[in-house]
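TL;DR need structure tokens for one chain.
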Amino acid sequence: MLKYKNLMMIAILIVGSIGTFYVQSAFAKDDLPRYTIHSLKGDKNAVKDIRLIGSMESDEHYSESVLITNDETKYQSEASFINQFFGGGIFTSGKILSLQKKYHSFMRGKTDLNGFYEDQNRLIYVKEEHSGSLGTMSHTFDIDILNKKKNKRDSFQINLPNGNEIHFIEIIDVKIIDDELKVVTSNFNNSGEEIRVYSIDLPSKSLVGNNVIASNMNEDRDIETFFSGYQELDEMSSVPSVFYNLSKTRMVLQDSGESVQKEISKETFMYDLEKNKKRTIHFPTKINKENLLEPQYYYDKGNIYIVGATDKGIKVFIYDYIHEKLVKQYDFPLNSKNSNSPLLAVNKDQLFIVSNPNEKQDPIEIKRINVLNGKTTFQGEIKASKTSEKLFKIQEIEIN
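>> reply
TL;DR here they are.
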């Protein structure tokens, strides 16, 4: 009998907690400002796929996470009790949500965007699995393929060689070249990191290639090497190459006695996934001398797009890596005083710029620009429904 009383008390506590949660959420919803995108130039449909992820920050260092879309504003405190309890909340990727809606059964348990490949006919997901302890670990790729037209699935597993030498594998990108699945990874162990490409023949379901693109393993202890990959402009096009910046730094002792990190070398390279060959990219002096704030790098089948902030606004370089020449460059001024900290995102051939307020009263600008011709297709502002003592900060732009 005591057992059932305890179960009843637990049930009452859970129901009470959920009830309290929803009552508090209802009050919080009325108190929080709603944000809407207002057009100054162009149709609002131009930004219908944008998702802005940010936070409301108070002087007491408390922050409330917020998601803004073209249609609504969502706060983390407004997410369902189940979502908040188990994590996720309002911030599940828009791409994941879209795939879940279209392919509900296939998408169960699949959450890593880097593990997906999609084209007109197939949706593929690659997940790394491992077992054992350090020094005796084994690693596999679990590969799940959905034939969209036939609505049929095929799953198989690939054992990765030298698993005992690898502590951790992070999947960076998945591509298809003819009938080969190319899985680009970062592999880590005590000696450092290396970027690898695993080639898997789909008809035979076998590993046919295992190539190192770049590595910082077994380097001098005072040298640090950083890898940063480029993002494909159109994820559905599957360009048969990957691009990386590789920079090396060393701790240097200053006259003041302070040690600082100093860049000693920087390299940009392209790795051809068809030929399994690496090629160094030499940007012209005009690009190298431009001091861009947190530049972002994108690529398509012929060009590299470099987008970054300057003290006057946003600058875009378009570099033809096949013919090795600078094709175009654009400058886009921002009107607001806070133009030194905008957020940038490029999707297909569209650049999205959102300014970040330094003060509560500062306007939040939003622009959409065609990077191929430099034309502004949308310009607007994000406005709050009411004033707030909290400062709204945007941390991320996502384009569905």
